[in-house]
Amino acid sequence: MSLKYTYTEKKDTRSGFGAGLLEVARKNPDVVGLCADLTGSLKMDAFQKEFPERFFQVGIAEANMIGLAAGMATGGKIPYTGTFANFSTGRVYDQIRQSVAYSGKNVKICASHAGLTLGEDGATHQILEDVGMMRMLPHMTVINPCDYNQTKAATIAIADHEGPVYLRFGRPKYPVFIPEDMPFVIGKAITLIEGSDVSIFATGHLVWHAIEAEAALREKGIKAEVINIHTIKPLDVDAILASVQKTGCAVSAEEHQLNGGLGDAVAQTLSRNAPAPLEMVGVNDSFGESGVPEQLMEKYGLSTQSIIDAAMRAVERKK
Amino acid sequence: MTPKPDFDQLRNVATQVRRDVLRMVHAVQSGHPGGSLGCADYFTALYFHVLELKKGFNMTGEGEDLFFLSNGHISPVWYSTLARKGYFEVSELATFRKINSRLQGHPATEEGLEGIRVASGSLGQGLSVALGAAQAKKLNGDKHHVYVLMGDGEQQEGQIWEAAMYAAHHQVDNIIAAVDCNNQQIDGTIRDVMDLLDLGKKWEAFGWAVVNCNGNDMEDLIRQLAYAKTLSGKGKPVIIMMQTVMGSGVDFMENSHTWHGVAPSDEQLKKALAQLDETLGDY
């Protein structure tokens, strides 16, 4: 099995965030950081050390953090808030809705430890509904990068985007395969592998699994197109439709509930424009549990094999 | 140097603001007159004497004092004050709560109404936003102050106390908060619904400098707002416990939670307006 992308090291996407924050802060003096007692986990310590006057420790008080960020944005700053994805969204939904999204504030909500791969802490912390909540909010941009390099690039890119952004990343070490110099354009999908039989739209950690799945499918004679949807909102509708026009069927893959996530967004796009078979890889209306990430991805149907199976079902449905 | 207050002018503005509030709420038979009337003196004192404001409106508010309203349901009093101050035409007050209006039921930025910097209405959020704006001022080297008003019922929201802790810990001493203490909330008196006990002591215990004030006495308001400002810049956030009468200025509306969110009838409006002179001309 020959993979079209290779890697030499595995790194966590949250470290990509930490590196990106430091770099963008050096370039842009308006960037400020707020953190709710998870500075180490969010990899914000390097930023804190270099810019102590621009770092605000808020303690375990996420609602206040979101409000503070809205106020700082009002004063012309570009606040990056940092905590786990669970506490970045569900816990503070109303604060984000009123003080940030409805008020059109230039706040970057940076959320780590998203999804099942948070692992052993279990379902209390494994949020799988955050993308759905955030993409429903008017004015909100939703980004879920796939590896260290892309997370770093996204962290830097969002400073130049005027408006609220939800940036979602994770805890575990995953292959680093996106070239360091690949430009990150919000809302622009990236075709990683071209194919003609099935389109695989993947986001976050599932992009790597899609690359693995493509190689396995190729051995079975199925040519899969792998598209990295790093921006779930605004969705690159043109890229999705163009790909499915070519392949005739699709698979969505994400570390999120099937309800409300990327799969829903792709389904809406296809059914409104050009209906085609779509198989969805994601968590099927259940909470997670404790375990190591690989076991959890396997148990909840988010593995490479799940994508292979879904692609074969999608191709079968074309007949 | 702040000029000497012209109390006759301030009282005239406050009276006209009360008339505006009643007419706005009556016109659409919805809105919150009680708290709006109770805070008419505070808004007048702030905008017509205390705040150092630049001409026109810009969102960042750099180089001027800022005001945030956390208990957004008393939007009528804010809209009237902003219009009377010249942020927009007073005639626009007639659009309050109507379709396609910039004067939403609760304050919003979406329609671009001058004077509003954040949406409020879902309670408990304004203090956090004001603190963020105050810290942005510090980062920008801007010596101006940030004012924020909250309701007393709103003190039951947990986020207020997250913000209270934060402000003291980070020594946000360029903020001058106020609580509209009218002892009323929707379901009854504060004491009956969820007693705040000694609210001033709570804020003191959270590390704030606490000032007391009669929010319906213009002279006391001006005096205590000036005193609050002298307490700023000393490492502690400042808060004013402002005692007000809900429905203040209209005898049959005073001191009752029944006027929290109920509009007066034609007859009641007539009776109410008879108690308030048209000092600056109705819109």
Q: Which key features would you list for this structure?
A:
heterodimer, A: 319 residues, alpha/beta, seven-stranded mixed sheet, five-stranded mixed sheet, 12 helices, 14 strands, globular, B: alpha/beta, Rossmann fold, two-stranded antiparallel sheet, 10 helices, 7 strands
Task: Please give a structural write-up.
The complex is a heterodimer of chains A (319) and B (283). Chain A is an alpha/beta fold and 319 residues long. Chain A has 2 domains: 10-175, Rossmann fold (3-Layer(aba) Sandwich); 190-317, 3-Layer(aba) Sandwich (Rossmann fold), CATH 3.40.50. Chain A contains 12 helices and 14 strands. Chain A has helices spanning 13-27, 45-50, 62-74, 85-88, 93-101, 130-135, 148-157, 206-219, 237-247, 262-273, 293-299, 304-317, and strands at 10-12, 31-35, 55-57, 78-84, 108-112, 141-143, 165-168, 173-175, 190-193, 198-202, 224-228, 231-233, 250-257, 278-283. In chain A, strands 3-2-4-5-7-6-12 form a 7-stranded mixed sheet, sandwiched between helices. Chain A is globular. The mean pLDDT of chain A is 98. Chain B has 283 residues and is α/β, with parallel strands linked by helices. Chain B has a single domain (7-273), classed as 3-Layer(aba) Sandwich (Rossmann fold), CATH 3.40.50.970. In chain B, 39% of the residues lie in helices and 12% in strands. Chain B has a 5-stranded parallel sheet, with helices on both faces. Chain B has a two-stranded antiparallel ribbon with strand order 4-5. In chain B, helix 9 links the parallel strand 6 (209-214) and strand 7. Chain B is globular and about 50 Å long.
